[in-house]
Specification:
single chain, about 575 residues, alpha/beta, Quinone Oxidoreductase, Chain A, domain 1, Rossmann fold, 3 domains, 6-stranded parallel β-sheet, 19 helices, 26 strands
Length: about 575
Amino acid sequence: MTELAARETARVDPAAYERYQAAGEDIPRRTLAWNVYGKDIEGVGRDGRPELVDVPEPRADQLLIRVDAVGLCFSDVKLIRLGGEHPKLYGRDLTKEPTRIGHETSVTVMRVGADLRDRFHPGQRLAIQPDIYVNGRSTAYGYTIPGGLIGYHVIGPEVLAADDGAYVIPVDQRMGYAETALTEPWACVEAAYTQRRRLWPLGGGRAWIIGRPDDRQPYAFGDVLGATARIVLSDAGPGLERAVRDAAPQATVEVASLADAEGPFDDVIALGVRSAATLERAADALAFRGAMVIVGDEPIDGPVEIDVGRIHYHYTAYLGTSGTDVTAAYGEVRNRAEIRRGGVTVVVGAAGPMGQMHVERALRMVDGPRLVVGVDLDGDRLEEARAKLEPIAKELGRELQLQVLGSEPEALSTLVAGVSGGRGADDIIVTAPAAAAVRAASGALAPDGMLVLFAGVPVGTRVALDMTPVFLGAVQYTGTSGSRIADQALVVEKTVAGGLSPGNALGAVGGMEAAQESLRALVEGRFAGKIVIFPHLSDLPLTSLADLGAHEPEIGAALGPGGTWTTDAEAALFAHHLRPMDGP
């Protein structure tokens, strides 16, 4: 018998959800919170428990918000594993200044400070966009700013008056709390198919142009160097230095050997370079958001070791073209970010919650790929994903294949060759944070395919990639981290319009006390779906949707096709598990 089945569930209040939505309840003086005081899961909370903290009154420039649902993410695990060493915590001593995870949140405004009453009102529902910047510096909610794993807390200028204004999105009242929280990971999925790379040389930047001493090709730069401030030129063939100076008369140009050129460089342009070792050194010299252009007509002499973690986290770009027109390598026409319509799309790690989202997005694309293939190493989890994804494919008349992937290195290439007639995949999305998965995916691409590094492997993770197709075939290596307000607003819009169901990704739920156990479950991969914590359902243990439906028939009857989450199921959950808060 599960813990849920052993609990008393006879006290059912059908009106609980409606009253909760009205947000008219008394606000307690104290609330439960899971603060982070150190590394690892044991550093979350006090002695394995949440703690009672005071509910503050909002200042004039603050809102008091009630946190209604929090999605847990593997990024939360990264934070608690690193503690104060996490890049977004900037060396913070968590024993003295704790933070709080929970960046996937649905919240309700409870009290409004005097200065904000023309913009917000009590009862208003919001989703928080956590990727917040202040003066260009990341101050993300759930990282630098303590996040949503708490019953009530205040937000002020750090969220409402940052670089892009208020990092909140108003939410339609028809949306459920769980699906609202899950708009954030869905926004990350949407962001994966937007241009986050820089596709033109940086104005006022520093460039490194590498030639080949015996190369006599007349390279044309057009106006791509017209705004570059400083240029370092190495291994220039006859005429290249003059061509560079003519194309960038405003720039300071210096000549240096390959060994003496010191990065970082905003832009690297490699002309006719065939040496993998040279290109590897050039790639390592790229600055944050740096762009490397490879121009050539002959293959490189071997794979190039690239820091693939930087593609995901630093948005380093690798562009290319054949011929001698350098300008042809740049721009969005040459460098796509969206899935190819009519192509073959492969999602690696399709059984995980994020993998399922990528599969669903591809299926729902208007004029999308002709075939969507989801692969995973875990057959049991893939079967759970199948129950959710196949009804979507059937409803939309799309072709979907879900296959267990063998563990041998060539397994992905063999599988992709079979479904693509030997051409390779037009798009491969890697949602597993493993260098081996990236390496396998790069070898299964079509000549003009796109590899999306969605799961972030650590910066410093090196993978030998074939860079020749970048300039001879327009292969794309892309990656994104996080999302923007516009991405999340688009997800909310699609959800309200019925074009998206964020709740489909939900695999398990729990109340406030279940948060620490939920983090362990996340690490162990117990569920083929997202875990959502409802902070105000205090007696709800961590429970899969399958077990929830089996032991509470009213909830089971309200689940959607394949046992997917619905707002009706959420209402039934609140009817069973919302209890009055016993505030001291």
